[in-house]
Write a structure and sequence with these properties.
8-stranded parallel beta barrel, Sugar phosphate isomerase/epimerase family protein (chains A, B), homodimer, isomerase (chains A, B), 17% strand
Chain lengths: 276, 276
């Protein structure tokens, strides 16, 4: 893929749009791909959502998200595995080969990061073959270290690759997301390694803007508004051999308060100006 | 040093106390050391502050803070060097051998982290000999990656050691602060290296609590309230050969709203319960 054909809009960026509105807006604006989220897809109906985007000729570039593997309680762990099997089935039904995983934070009262990471590996050993049989690749997303306690104990691309490396690359890889790794001077080498191993299963963009909002979840900046050299990261990921879609995934209260199609058009323009 | 004699209260933890109030509270509670900040010290008068803590028999375990070396504008860089020479002089006058450095974020409009880190090295090459002549060690503090854009482009202990390693350990070392490095699985090895090189110039504690407040500056948790295994970090730093003071440095609106001496007493109790 080259140029604007690589652009994909993650559904969360314009969550004010319903799935039919999003599909129509993509068609009007010539956006070729969407990254979907499980909750709105399930609310609409998985089969109906799959038909909607397929009929519109849109590529589903990823499904967000599985994961949350760090519980200690056996019943809770079994529920997480069941939920992830369902997520894999949903990804297959939607026609995407990539399920993004947010691995989970520390269980209440625990400070054992290494133990939590090992429980992620345990869950992957169950789910990776299940995914592989259905043509779905699990993509471990390292999240920014500010989420290590409550959301994801996998904080660097190197850690994500260490986990993924226990499994075939056709089953488990990583997500490269600029928002989470831009600060890390070891990440460029990790991108190169991930590419060489065939493990870059998704590439997502968001810019880093400050001040961060309370809870630090919904402050991801529009492309070009922040501190990240987007073109440098795109070049690194290209040089690593990745030529797939590039999703823009923004969680941003200000963008959500605006007209969704206008935000989508702006995001496509920013992609052309700052990424290509 | 052993046991409670290693406890030092960083002035910022109880900033509601004036310097004389802080000194008296330390005496009443048997707290042997304080980490001071430049602004309140200068407001009180450097010589007067030095006399106050000296007469009380308190050790000044560090002075916070110099740094902010990342500007590109020559005039701004010259002002930063002047200000840091003044900070070194103040540290010497207060009788502490350690000046903590917060290195600075990205200049407005820049996304060049590597360039900013190189400008830090340039500033250190000027300041390190000046500090060495006055018996003051510069201590580079890696700040959590969530501050990389606007406060400190040095985000890991490994990066801080790479910078410090260009200079004699008697002139430049690092700060180990649990709040900033707890998430990093490469930090334990970096602590060992820092100790072997004689570069652990300060050891500070704060706990990690969520949700983070807006701006993410003033949410550092009281020891024992968060996700960090304090005793494990103390053991690692001990094993690296560090036997100096351990400062508790909390920026926390809720603690600041309470009676300062009560917070100091609570912090000393938490230190005994969770760190020793």
């Amino acid at each position: 893929m080259t140029g604007p054909s690589r652009f994909s809009i993650n559904q969360m960026t314009v969550k004010q749009l319903s799935l039919p509105e999003l599909t129509k807006a993509c068609l009007r604006l010539g956006v070729p791909g969407v990254g979907l989220w499980r909750e709105p897809v399930r609310a609409y109906g998985v089969a109906a959502a799959a038909a909607l985007v397929r009929d519109a000729g849109l590529a589903v570039t990823s499904l967000c998200r599985g994961g949350f593997f760090t519980a200690i309680d056996p019943a809770e762990r079994a529920r997480a595995l069941d939920d992830n099997r369902a997520a894999i089935d949903e990804a297959a039904a939607l026609g995407t080969d990539t399920l993004v995983l947010v691995s989970g934070g520390l269980p209440p009262g625990s400070s054992d990061l290494a133990g939590a990471r090992e429980r992620i590996a345990d869950a992957l050993s169950v789910l990776a073959p299940y995914a592989g049989e259905r043509g779905v690749r699990l993509a471990i997303e390292p999240l920014h270290p500010m989420y290590a306690a409550d959301r994801c104990v996998v904080s660097t691309l190197t850690q994500a690759l260490a986990l993924a490396g226990r499994f075939p690359s056709s089953q488990v890889g990583v997500v490269v997301d600029t928002y989470h790794i831009w600060w890390d001077d070891t990440a460029p080498d990790a991108v190169a390694r991930a590419g060489a191993e065939g493990r870059i299963h998704a590439f997502q963009l968001a810019d880093w803007t400050t001040p961060l909002p309370a809870g630090v979840l919904n402050g991801r900046g529009q492309i070009g508004d922040g501190s990240i050299d987007m073109r440098a990261w795109r070049s690194r990921v290209d040089a690593a051999g990745y030529s797939g879609p590039i999703e823009v995934e923004l969680f941003n209260e200000e963008l959500w308060a605006r007209d969704g199609e206008e935000v989508l058009a702006e995001t496509a323009r920013r992609f052309t100006a700052h990424v290509l």
